[in-house]
Write a structure and sequence with these properties.
By secondary structure, the protein is of the alpha+beta class. It is built from 4 helices and 6 strands, in the order ααβββββααβ. It is elongated. The N and C termini lie far apart (about 70 Å).
């Protein structure tokens, strides 16, 4: 019975919480990525990889191998961190370890040990994954509908 509760809980905690809606048109999220490597896709589909050097309300500056380039918000289609943060893996592991320790109704020392062990395992698993973390997604353009009659 307890395993039936633990499996959905583990799946829920391991799900990726960053949705495209969170990253839509929130240009202020760039401020947390200053000095980090990012991948930027402009409206023409050109992919650029560099370090975020500066950001303000409606533009950002990236440093590339040869220099810097400034992009306005209107030019940017999407942006991602090259690697996501690993702290969330440690937190998810600690929660899973704590829940499993409490479900076993073991001694508090075992629960603390399980929490620490699972936290380290979660940190290592998250650090080994190299997927990108979304920072920004431009708001979708409204589709234009044209109607014409031909004879």
């Amino acid at each position: 019975m307890k395993i039936l509760i633990a499996v959905p809980l583990i799946l829920l905690l391991s799900a990726d919480k960053v949705s495209a809606q969170q990253a839509h048109a929130d240009f202020s999220r760039f401020a947390r990525a200053l000095g980090q490597e990012i991948v930027l896709v402009d409206r023409e589909g050109v992919v650029r990889e560099g370090v975020l050097a500066d950001v303000n309300a409606d533009q950002l500056t990236m440093t590339f191998g040869g220099g810097q380039k400034t992009f306005t918000q209107a030019e940017i289609f999407s942006a991602d961190r090259v690697r996501d943060r690993t702290l969330d893996g440690a937190i998810k592991g600690a929660i899973v370890g704590g829940v499993l320790g409490l479900m076993m109704q073991a001694k508090s020392e075992w629960t603390l040990g399980a929490t620490i062990s699972y936290s380290i395992i979660g940190l290592l698993i998250d650090a080994s994954q190299t997927h990108r973390e979304p920072i920004y997604r431009a708001a979708p353009q409204p589709a234009s509908l044209k109607f014409s009659l031909r004879f």
